[in-house]
Design goal:
Subcellular location (chain A): Nucleus
InterPro entries (chain A): RNA_pol_Rpc34, RNA_pol_Rpc34-like, WH-like_DNA-bd_sf, WH_DNA-bd_sf
Family (chain A): Belongs to the eukaryotic RPC34/RPC39 RNA polymerase subunit family.
Distance between the termini of chain A: 70 Å
Helix content of chain B: 55-70%
Structural class of chain A: alpha+beta
Strand content of chain A: 5-15%
Mean pLDDT of chain A: 73
Number of helices of chain A: 12
Structural class of chain B: mainly alpha
Largest sheet of chain B: 3 strands, antiparallel
Radius of gyration of chain A: 33 Å
Low-confidence stretches of chain B: none
Shape of chain A: elongated
Mean pLDDT of chain B: 85
Pfam families (chain A): RNA_pol_Rpc34 (PF05158)
Order of helices and strands of chain A: EHEHHEEHEHHEEHEEHHEHHEEH
Strand content of chain B: 5-15%
Function (chain A): DNA-dependent RNA polymerase catalyzes the transcription of DNA into RNA using the four ribonucleoside triphosphates as substrates. Specific peripheric component of RNA polymerase III which synthesizes small RNAs, such as 5S rRNA and tRNAs.
Oligomer: heterodimer
CATH architecture of the largest domain in chain A: Orthogonal Bundle
CATH topology of the largest domain in chain A: Arc Repressor Mutant, subunit A
Shape of chain B: globular
Largest interface: A-B, 49 and 61 residues
Largest sheet of chain A: 4 strands, antiparallel
Number of strands of chain B: 12
Chain lengths: 328, 522
Amino acid sequence: MAGLAAVNIKKEKIDEPRPSVSTVNDDGRSEAEIEARMLELLHQFPKGISNQILDTDMPTVDKQIKVTILNKLMSKEKVSMFKAAGTQELFWCLKSHPTSRIKGADNEERVVLGLIEEAGNKGIWTKDIRIKSSLSQATLNKVLKALEGKKVIKSVSSVSAAKKKVYMLFNLQPDRSITGGSWYSDNEFESELVDLLNHQCYRMLLQKAEVAKQKQNDGPFTVRNSSFLSSKEICQVISDLKIVKFNLTVEDIETILDTLVFEGKVEKSTTSDGNCDGQVKTYRTVEKPVSSASIVRMPCGVCPVMKKCGNVGAIQPKDCNYYGEWDD
Amino acid sequence: MSSIVLSPFNQTCYQLINKYFGEIVGEVAKFLLSRRYGTLFNIKTGTGMSLWDVKRALAVLIHQNLVEFQANEQNPNIVDYSIIYHNAYCLLRYAKYLYTIKRIFGSSEEVLIEILLNIGQASASNVIFHSANKLNKAIDDIKVINPSDLYQSFQKLAANNFIIRCPKIEIVENMPKLLEFEEKDKFIVPQLEMEPIAKLLREKATQIGEHSDSEIIWRVNHQRFEVELRNVILVNAAARRVDETTGKLYHLILKLWREANPTEARVSNAVSYTLVKDAVRKNDGGSPMLMEHFDQYLRVLYEDSTGLISRVGDSGGGQFAVNYADVFENFACSILDSVVLERFGSKKALRIFRLTRMQKFMTDQDQMQKLAMVSPKDAKTLSYKLMKEGFLQLHEQKKATSNVGPVKSFNLFYVNLPEVVRGVLETSYKCVSNALERQAHDLTVNKCLLERHADFENILEQLRGEDAPDNEIAEFSDSMTVADKELVAKVLKLCDRLKLVPIQADETILILENYLKFHSMP
């Protein structure tokens, strides 16, 4: 249903359809038959049927009847109505997973369920459901408990705000923004896993650089170019090592490699790949231009109370404890 | 002792002057360091010393190129004295100067520089005379050193700008003034006759007496040495980034740049590809690999992200220059990274610092957490810790919602590089001054103990030399207790370490100072 903007229609309790002016219309079809024909059309055009199609198919059927039947189908939750984004025409299409499969669900539950379904795999917050459905807090809680009991929906706690719970359909996987992605398990950031992968990637790149150095006689350019590894290759090797239980995507590996860039150990460069279009990110280890600041080799360079050190007062270089314990 | 508190840099200068010239000179220097200018009378009342002492101290300082004088603005009959801050700091580097000269030239030039550093300002003949004496004493040979060799060495030093003429005194509007020479005259050595000096040496004289060029006075050129020390760091960086041969190539290119532009500028003048290739060809004995893969080496260098070389044009096969501001910015960042890593003890702090520095826009804690792959709690604690120590700066951006009630604001972090560099630079100066102070303190406090230990060692040596029986040696050994010996060992060990501290810290200071210098150049 690409390109169609959904129109939020408040689903009110619809009464039984008015008895039509004549149940048998001009070409002798009954309402039920027309309904069946419409359903056929809906199946035929899964992308949706517009008024035009209905007209071409059954020109003799009265417009009023068509509208009534469509309304009936909508109330049975078999069909939903959309407005086309460009032409503002109305479309009707079959609902992919009719929510009315739940037996004995009353309208309130259906409404809430509809909202939760719409939210997809990002889930919807309790407060938002309340605003959109304009149900009271107590009713809403009852409905949510009932639905959870039937195992139709579930609550997932978001990683950004630990106390916030969002609801989504039971069989959906929560989106990355809620669970935080591959690096979160049970809403906790897995620093050890990140460190481990960090180490592995760095070792891989170091090994590649070592191998590349053997080719020194071919010139430094060759040495440098053969010490590059692309993120895809790294992802492949790390996945083969089976350190992590889930599948590592290239993006995941790239975030890990970016942390190495942020530690200054690795340099990133983008080159265009000959085969596919788009840029390929490659990485290699680099040495820092200055090995380490010389002042960090002395107590004063890393002293935590440097600002308080002076010629007077409790902290003086004369009786500094750090100098006394300087063992190296 | 006056109770003036000095800034870290000034404290370092004071400690150095105190160490090398003694307390009296140190006190005068301390006064002048805290006040920009001082007249003779000011100094006398400020330090509380006698006029005689103050005059002698000033004479020493002026002769050592540490103090300069000029006429007072209000009253031209009075002289204002002021410290030359940079020269005072360079006292730290004298050992490095000698090593540099020895590395580039040889031992006779090293002796010349050593004598000139000791005396401060001297004429060429004087320096040559004293150097010859010193070499004679060292070699202890019957053959006397030929002063003509030393004269040639002296000329070599001047040609390479390691020594420079002192400003001359001229009477301008009835006022004696110090005037610098023209650029071209600063390094010209006068024609000298070595015969009189050789004669004096044969007579084993201790003073040179009257000589023809006593008006032409030389001193050590600190700027040139700084350029040399800086080049060492640059070449080392090139060698680290690529490999040794690249370091050699870079060394040659640096020489070419120096010849191309004599003055210090943010971006050096460009040298062409053909020029570099010629230089490498002349130096071919150094490394055949360089000639073979010359293009590759050059390319790898100028594609390197540190900015050691940048290609500025295409004429003549390629024009290459260096933008010192960029290079030193990278070096300074490297230094800061190292300091953050060691001081905060974790890679995470380093990641956060680097990523905030590398981003074009200011970062907030959420972004930090995502990009640096740290837990949200860590992101918060580390960013605040870094801010407290002055590595990150905070910018509060208010959300433009309602004016009623509590206003939400974004807390954004950024790195103001010059500010952070200045902070670390001050810490480095403090490192140096603390080390000097602690060393001086330790030696004075433990003076008696150390003297006793020195005597003890002497006698022990004597006994061993005389082949005294073992039990006598053992008995004598016990006269100094084990605790004492341990204490002495500990003190001496710390002193040795502290001696190295200023020299090592100087490397960091050099890089950071040069960053600030080139950064503020237009």
